[in-house]
Amino acid sequence: MLNSHSHHGHSHHGIHGCTCHTLSNYDRKIKLLWTALIAIASFAALEFGVGYWSHSLALQAESGHLLSDSFALALSLLAAWFVQRQAARGENFAHMRIEAIAAVLNGLGLVAIAVWIAIESVSRLQSPPTEILSLPMLVTAGVGLGVNGFNVFLLHDSSHHDLNVRGAFLHILADLISSIGVIVAAIAIWLMHWLWVDGAVGLFVSSLIFVSAIPLIIQSLNSIRNKVSLEQ
Fold first, then answer.
1. d(CA 168, CA 35)
2. pLDDT tens column, 122-155
3. Would you say the pTM of this structure is higher than 0.90?
4. What CA–CA distance (Å, rounded) separates 199 from 127?
5. Which among 59, 33, 27, 42 is positioned nearest to 129, based on CA atoms?
């Protein structure tokens, strides 16, 4: 009898703690997204300037992707803030659908960036530039690797169970891998003067972004469809 009473008391406490726990998770998520947004937006401007100066398409492409990341993170932040308000009122299905829509928009943004980078890369392969400054390209990509690595570490745990954060995480993960590609290209240009590698890395990065975007879009659309079915 005593055990039964104790179990009942524990369950009762869990019910009251649920909303507070959910709101605490959203507070943490908003802080994580803000941190990632500030780091990425600051570096995007620097990377574009260096890419333009050094004539590196790969670096400019990566900065363009970082710019899209900034918009994606801003969108994720807006959705997370709105969700926090809705969750406090207990409107679960509405806020979950908003997050899924934000994730779809993030995926579509990734596709648009991938197409732009692919077009520019093919053009660069057809007519390579006469000079690319490999050392500034290498140093900037190295810093970018550090910035993106920090943000991947920051968002990794939350990305497993949150579609909205997962969209932002995939943006940044693609940036991390593209930073590695730019570093490889810079070294190849520096040591062997292979200017065509700049365009080839850009094409690789665009393919990587596209491949990461499609599953996110499909998963998010399925999530929206399921939530609509549950509401009916």
1. 12
2. 998 998 888 899 999 999 999 999 988 988 888 8
3. no
4. 10
5. 59
Q: Count of alpha carbons within 13 Å of 2, Cβ hemisphere only?
A: 0
Q: What is the pLDDT of residue 93?
A: 55
| Residues 6 or more apart in contact with residue 165 via CB below 8 angstroms | 29, 32, 33, 76, 155, 158, 159
Q: Which fold has domain 26-231?
A: Alpha-lytic protease prodomain-like (1.20.1510)
Amino acid at 73: L
DSSP H helices, 55-91, are 57-88
Is pLDDT of 166 > 70? yes
Please give the structure tokens belonging to residue 169.
Answer: 């995480």
Query: What does residue 129 show for φ and ψ, rounded to 5 degrees?
Result: -70, 160
| pLDDT-based confidence at residue 94 (cuts at 50, 70, 90) | low
H helix or E strand, kind and range, residue 20:
helix 2-54
Q: Are 168 and 69 in contact (CB under 8 A)?
A: yes
